[in-house]
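Sorry to interrupt, but I need a hand with the structure work. Leave the record below and I will have a look:
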Amino acid sequence: MRKPARPHRYNGTVIAEWQNVTAGYDLDALWSTAQITRAGYAWAGISAQRVGVEHLTEWSPARYGDLDVTGGGRFTGDELSYDIYAQVAETLRTSSPLRGLRTGTVLGVGASQSAFRMTTYYDAVLPQSEKVFDGYAFIVGPAPARRGPEPVFNVLSETDVRSPVRPPDTDTFRRWEVAGSAHSGWHGQEYRRPILTRDLGEAPTYQCDAPPFSRVPLHHVIATSYDHLVRWTKGRTPPSAPPLQFNPDGSKARDALGLAKGGIRLSQVEAPTALNTGDNSGETFCFLFGTHAPFDEARLDALYPSRGRYVAAVVQSDARNLREGYLLPADARQNRADAIHSDVGRD
């Protein structure tokens, strides 16, 4: 549980994340320190699945040894996970874990495998139970087929978009696709590295076929979707976004630099200093990491004859994304500062 240290900073919304257990332990895949804390959200990571809870009991028996999500071994296939997730969220609404903070909105969010679990919850369990969540965000994973009254955001990286066939946007559904971003990119890896080193002894390393970890900040778009989702629960519909483009043969369309065409195009794609894609290959999870290959000096000089030209390109791209509702002002300001202090473009 993470919440604002000062009660007056709390914005009244809890982001309830279904913890991801693909790696064999609980992963707060959607935690983003700057974006979540500055907005005043509270965040709760919910351990609903057996794999994650069993890892906790082994890692710290003194603290977690009494936890059990199997009904004493009767339900070992995570059958209870849906009720666990919903019941914890209901508890968050009553504010008991928040120590008196008043909660008006609870968002159900999950990434990748957790989005799969939440899709089952939304499609099959929710119609038979009482409403707990005000809105849902399915990130880098599938979204429900059912269209219910609660608003649903589906934010996908370039990695996750494998077909030009898509469900249409509706009054309660939005799908955003982010060019150049990866299912598991640089931002998440850098956040988790010191934690994994502390808790597990070391962070994993990977031998991928291309330089891994796209640096297109998908978390900027995810943070924007949370703000839209809160407003959507109050009747304000968010913008739609253009899809990624595909060639007639089914491959993703790319420009002369190798960057994906279409989709939400952040300044890291519109004013590029590297080839960032959602594609990679190699061992284990490499296919999820995307690619980051910095341009050489000759290409950078050709694209940006001066530092001012580069900064202007970043600012112009971010201004467009701000107008269209895909980026938050604080992230645009940080992008501009990063561009000014970079070594891109001749002085």
